[in-house]
Every structure is written in structure tokens, then in C-alpha cells.
Amino acid sequence: MARKFLYFVAFCIILVITAGFLLALFPGPLTRLATVPSVAFAPVKPLAANAYEDPALWYSRPGIGKSDPARWQPAFAGHRGLLPTPAEPQQRFAVFFVHPTSYRSRASWNAPLENGGDPEAERIARVFLRGMASPFNAAKEIWAPRYRQATMGAFLTDKPEGAQAIDAAYADVREAFRFFIASVDPGAPIVLAGHSQGSLHLKRLIAEEVKGTPLAQRLVAAYLIGWPVSTTHDLPALGLPACSSAGQTGCVISWSSFAEPADPALVLEAYARMPALDGKAPGSDPMLCSNPLTGTTGGAAPASANLGTLVPEASMENGSLVPALVPAKCDKRGLLLIGPPPEMGSFVLPGNNYHVYDLPLFWANTKADVVRRVDAWKPAN
User: Fold this and answer.
1) What is the pLDDT of residues 98-126, one digit of tens each?
2) SS3 state at 130
């Protein structure tokens, strides 16, 4: 029984949280024993410059067809069963999406890519993409790379190997992004989106690859969901403002969802001490809270404004849209409060933390938000 319980805990953790939050929320020695690799860190050889020309290194990209997880479309839950969502014409913009942690093995510090990778990590990554990348599928092109993601345990240790694994994962994301930029229409607007570990890498990517370049003019918005963005210590380093209005472009969107009563103490403690992009710890400075029901920074909106929450089935591989399920209110700390706990599945963290459901909770509003910002985007003169 103890072994089954330990496996369950490890499985839940990989599904619902990553990075420094894991260390704060699950600090016990059993969790570290079950997740932190005991092997030495093996330097990760940089990928060849043309590696991402290989379609096998992408979960989503043009040409994959029906098996592309980001192109999955949920149905609305109606009074008489499931009603298909109306087909929408794809618009001329391209999305680069980075998935969250799906690798939990202790066999190595970074997920393998060769020979199809780790089967369970690959399966979970595709599940994540179905629920988290699909709100962006009004785009003409969605690109979501496979990458040598840092294993879950890399975020549960102070050993230098953890930071090395995260750096190695970022290097792959950067190479995938460079290929993405070289492949899409040079005049097309772009959207960057990710969740958790994916958003962590995108923060660094924007600071190093986008800020101060012509790409910044093409950026419709950056959806850095499920990872804290400090308004004081991150936004200046990103060179982008927060999205303060629904039609704004060239800006950043981020939220972390909690039902009420929320107990975010451990999460806030982790956020306070983790270095931001400027190298400083945010302390008590608020994190960015974008309201996904209004498209603005902060504020509150009732459940009636929620166009559709993606409520998953037990397997997490399918689900349906339920309108008006949860409200959204940003509090003074920068947390997004969603009212009483909705029934979304088994992977809710202690403290009513709905981390794994950040995007599914606001699936239809996120899709509408992206389309609205793309419509408002104008090319630089």
C-alpha cells in the first residue's frame, strides 16, 4: 500500500506542478527520494543546428494532420449531450507553444529524445497539448517542440545538476524557436504560449531572443501561464508590458489559479525567494495576474462571463466545454481566485491550487482572447 501511495504522489506531482513550486509544496524526503535523480549529471550535447528540421522533433507543426494534439477540438456539454464547437477559419498567425513537465524518471536529469523518447512522458505531453495548446488552434500554424525537458526532480533539489538540466532544456527550446522563426511567414504575427516549465523557458527566451529585435514588433502576446511573472523584476527584463486591455498587443499575460478558500502560503514563499529575470528575488512584490475572462490586468468577472471551461474526463485525454462554470478575480497578491472549488478531476494541489487546470478553466475565453488580439495587431510601419 505504501508503494502505491508513493507512486500516486509522484504521478500527481508531475501532472500538476513544476519548478520551485514543487520544492515548496512537497518538501518531504520521500518525494525527493522518488523524483530526484541519483545519477551524475551527463552533459547534454547540443543538438545539431538543423535538428528541428526533423518532423519527429515536433508534437505539433504544419503537415501533421489529425494526429496533431494541438488541433484537437472539444465539444460543448449541452442538455442533450455533446454539441460540436463551430468550425472557425484559421487565421494568419503562428503559435509557438512549450509544454509543461511530463518527464518524471530518475534515470537521467533530462528527458531523452532519441528512439521516440520516454513513452510515458511522451503520452502525458500529448495530453497536456490537447488541453493547453488547443485554445490557440485558430492559428494557421501551431508549432510545439519536443525538447529534452528537465525531469521533475531537477526542480526539487539545490544541487547544481538541477540548474544544469533546466539550462539544457532551455537550449533545446531556443533552437526549436529559431527554426520556427525561420520557417513561418516573415510577415506573420506570432504568439508565444506555454505552461509551467514551458513558461519558465519562454520568459528567458523573450528576454534573450525577442527583446529589442524586430520579432518584438511581430509579437501579438506572450501567454506565460502557470509560472510567476514579477511585475517589478520580470517585465522590465522582458521588454514588454502587461496586457492591460483586451485589444492590446505586444504584451504579457499570466495567471495562477486558486479556488477559495485559497491557502497559497507555500507558493508565495517559493515565489518570494526564486530569482527573477533580473537576478533578484521578488520578495513581497505582486506577481502579474491577468484576468482571462476580461483580457485585462487585475479585476473581477462573474462566472457568466466564462465562455467555456474544459472539464476533463478521468483519463485527462478528453473533455467537454461547460459555460459559466467559474468566475475569476485577481487578488492583491497576484493570484487568480476562481470561487468555490469546481469539480475538475483528481489533480488539485493542497491549498486549492488548480495549477494543472490553469488553461482548461478558461479554454474558450483564452481562444477568444487570442483571436481578438490578433485582429487588433498591426504590422510595424
Assistant:
1) 999 998 877 888 899 999 999 999 999 99
2) helix
Lowest average pLDDT, out of 46-50, 120-124, 322-326, 334-338, goes to: 46-50
pLDDT digit string (tens) for 3-49? Answer: 333 333 344 444 444 444 444 444 445 455 556 777 777 888 999 98
- How far apart are alpha carbons 284 and 281 in whole angstroms? 9
Question: Could you tell me which residues are beta bridge partners of residue 230?
Answer: 287
CA gap 162, 253 in Å, rounded: 27
Number of Cβ within 10 Å of residue 338's Cβ equals 29
What DSSP state is assigned to residue 271?
H
d(CA 3, CA 89): 49
Q: 209 pLDDT exceeds 90?
A: yes
3-state helix, strand, coil in the chain (%, to 5): 40, 20, 45
In this predicted structure, what is the pLDDT of residue 308?
96
Nearest-angstrom CA–CA distance, 346 and 12: 8
What per-residue string of b and e applies to 11-38 under the rule 16 or more CB within 10 Å gives b?
ebbbbbbbbbbbbbbbeeeebeebbbbe
Report the alpha-carbon distance of residue 365 to residue 308 in Å, rounded. Answer: 7
Q: How far is Cα 360 from Cα 354, in angstroms, rounded to an integer?
A: 10
Q: Is 353 helix (H, G, I), strand (E, B) or coil?
A: strand
Residue 92 three-state SS:
strand
Nearest CA among 97, 154, 57 for reference residue 359: 97
Closest listed residue to residue 33, CA positions, set 131, 148, 153: 153
In terms of Cα–Cα distance, which of 363, 367, 358, 354 is closest to 319? Answer: 363
CA-based nearest residue to 374, from 290, 288, 250, 291: 250
| Residue 367 CB neighbour total at 10 angstroms | 19
pLDDT given for residue 6 in this prediction? 35
pTM of the predicted protein model: 0.89
Tell me the β-bridge partners of 194.
98, 224
State how far the alpha carbon of 86 is from the alpha carbons of 89, 198, 200, 204, 317, in Å.
10, 29, 33, 36, 21
Please report, for residues 111, 222, 296, 312, 328, the alpha-carbon distance to residue 225 in angstroms, rounded to integers and kept in the order given.
22, 9, 15, 19, 15
